[in-house]
Design goal:
single chain; 405 residues; alpha/beta; Archaeosine Trna-guanine Transglycosylase, Chain: A, domain 4; Transcription Regulator spoIIAA; Rossmann fold; 3 domains; 6-stranded mixed beta sheet; 20 strands; binds S-adenosyl-L-homocysteine
Length: 405
């Protein structure tokens, strides 16, 4: 970028308040004027209506989020070295967690002060997403720094097309450094192996955010296995079977994984084999979960441990009502299949539905089911998905662990 004075973005009166609370987004509606003609991703100097310095931000000419804050320090200069230091800080944070896995989120966008950047590590493969014009403009220096700092040679891009569209960026996938993965990567999480398809899988290939909850499922399955002669698991919205495999490896006797995607379930079956689990113990059903829950009830099937991990039913605030009905329906149906003493792990990854509301929805299902249920724990994303207190939008995954009395 050039050495001329950085372009300036002047806010409307009063619109500085969210930035003073260190919220990193500047909406188009808050902008009074832009001096100069900053290019997409160019760093702009954000000033309050009275001219006070507020932040350095990456400009996005066509997005509703017109700029994303890099730094609130006037003395900072956003350049390749500065970005490398931010990346180093994110990596050091993950190092300190001492996770018992070779797969984790290394960079989580706004939470790590790198708005719109996601970096996941699967063994020696890095999978990145550039989801804002701000980070898009720096993709070269970011990839160089990642290779240098992690020692990983292969960097593969899986930028989510939907997010990029909002930033007027074209879809993007492909190798950015080294070579594209020629085969799926087998990761090991707490001794359990999972095959990850970084080329075509969801997100960057795997639900890393559910790691702690997989461990919790494993722990509870192991405990139940000491108390009963069988532990039957129902894993709804199973994807590649993460929760089922974790439970089976921990001692569950049988798991039924249900997903509408036959491809995902093929990988779930493969994951069972990878862990020496008999195919007969790891059943899969390619079906709509709503229909499957009805069939299971009609067939009189019962379970000691049930996981509900649906996709985002409420992609935006406008869908909350309809989503609430869907969450209630699956929870109600699942409760009807749960054995006394059994556990329900129920999740929502809708950012528009907070934990309070989610708990209320599930409580409604519990009341209608007539079951006597205890709330044992509230669950969330793992520590490699931290949330900035200034940016509550970063919190999306929430869950409840309920026990049937
Ligand atoms: N629990 C998984 C992640 C679930 S993601 C894990 O821990 O890895 C949501 C999954 O729900 C996707 O795999 C998607 O294919 C599936 N899905 C979405 N709608 C569905 C429906 N109505 N019935 C069955 N599966 C559905």
């Amino acid at each position: 970028m050039s050495t001329r004075e950085p372009p300036e973005l002047r806010l409307k009166p009063g619109k500085e308040r969210s930035l003073e609370r260190r919220h990193p987004w500047i909406y188009a509606s808050a902008v009074a004027r832009v001096a100069g003609t900053p290019a997409a991703g160019e760093t702009v100097c954000v000033r309050a209506a009275d001219g006070r310095f507020l932040a350095w931000a990456g400009f996005s000419p066509q997005s509703l989020i017109r700029a994303r804050v890099w730094s609130f320090e006037q003395s900072d200069r956003v350049d390749a070295d500065w970005l490398a230091a931010r990346l180093q800080r994110a990596l050091a944070r993950r190092e300190r967690l001492r996770l018992r896995t070779d797969a984790m989120r290394l960079v989580f966008g706004e939470s790590d002060g790198l708005p719109g950047l996601v970096v996941d590590r699967y063994r020696d493969l890095l999978v990145v997403q550039f989801l804002s014009a701000a980070v898009e403009a720096w993709r070269g220096p970011i990839v160089d720094a990642l290779v240098r700092l992690t020692g990983c040679d292969d960097v593969y891009e899986r930028s989510d097309a939907q997010f990029r569209r909002r930033e007027a960026l074209p879809p993007a996938t492909g190798a950015l450094h080294g070579s594209a993965p020629r085969a799926p990567v087998d990761i090991v999480e707490d001794g359990v192996r999972y095959r990850v398809d970084a080329l075509a899988g969801h997100k960057t290939g795997f639900y890393l955010d559910q790691r702690d909850n997989r461990l919790r499922v494993a722990r509870e399955a192991a405990r139940l296995a000491t108390e009963r002669d069988r532990v039957r698991v129902l894993n709804c919205f199973a994807y590649t079977g993460g929760f089922a495999i974790a439970a089976l490896a921990a001692g569950a006797s049988h798991a039924l994984s249900i997903d509408s995607s036959a491809d995902a379930l093929a990988l779930a079956a493969r994951n069972a084999t990878l862990n020496g689990i008999a195919a007969s113990a790891a059943e899969t059903w390619a079906s709509d979960v709503f229909d499957a829950l009805r069939s299971l009830r009609d067939a009189g099937r019962r379970f000691e441990l049930i996981v509900l991990d649906p996709p985002k039913f409420a992609p935006a605030a406008a869908h909350v009502q309809r989503a609430a009905r869907a969450y209630k329906e699956i929870n109600l149906k699942a409760l009807g299949l749960l054995e006394p003493g059994g556990l329900l792990f129920t999740f929502s990854c809708s950012g528009a539905i907070g934990i309070e509301l989610f708990q209320k929805i599930v409580a409604g299902a519990v009341i209608d089911s007539g079951a006597d249920m205890l709330l044992l724990a509230r669950l969330g994303a793992g520590e490699d998905h931290p949330m900035s207190m200034a940016h509550p939008e970063g919190e999306y995954l929430k869950g409840l662990l309920l026990e049937r009395a």
